[in-house]
Input
Amino acid sequence: MEKREQIYEGKAKKVFATDDPERYIVSYKDDATAFNGLKKGTIAGKGIINNRMSNALMKRLEAAGIPTHFVEELSDRETLVKKVKIVPLEVIVRNLSAGSFSKRYGVEEGIVFAEPTVEFSYKNDALADPLLAEDHISALELASKEEVALIRKYALAVDEILTAFWKECGVTLVDFKLEFGKTADGTVILADEISPDTCRLWDAQTGEKLDKDRFRRDLGGVEDAYAEVMKRLLAHG
Ligand code: TMP
Output
């Protein structure tokens, strides 16, 4: 597999073309941002952890029947993935109240929901990723009703599988964000990453935050938290 020109540089990853028109290479950076890029920093070694963690979780999901973009881990920071066109939706699943949910609805963090919630935001930096009602997804033609139904089904299945896995690791999966993409033939698959950047992960015993909220909220111990969840994942891999 030959790495060719850079296609795109995001806040946490770069994407490269390859000699195969159906494959991309993603390269994970240590750069971290929050609040739509307003806060910038570096989390040393994050790219390596997120690459390995995302791949391990995607493999697990793939084995459970969820189609993903994962093809092959190439190195510490680089992974070969299926080429997709990203559906411009941030798909957020929540099991406990936290973050923007708590802020928007004026409730404390840590309330356990009877059922997981799925919400969609418009992936659009210029608009700061506004929340979308499902009808708005159709009105804006971001995805068809069938695609939204499938994405919702996959997101809930991901939640069930990952909640059970993280529980084995002594970690509560509070919430997470997924992105989906479409391959050349229109198949919807899970893309982007699943990592402490995109999930809230709390120690099941103490409630200690083991994710990017340590960076967002200046809690300190950011690198240690990423290393700790990675260690637990590897111990239960
Ligand atoms: P929120 O509570 O800020 O809406 O975040 C919900 C989940 O989505 C949380 O696990 C962090 C993740 N997330 C991202 O991956 N990217 C983002 O840009 C934001 C705002 C949240």
Remarks:
- The helical segments are 46-63, 99-105, 134-139, 145-168, 213-216, 222-235.
- The CA atoms of residues 22 and 83 lie 5 Å apart.
- DSSP finds six helices and 14 strands in the chain.
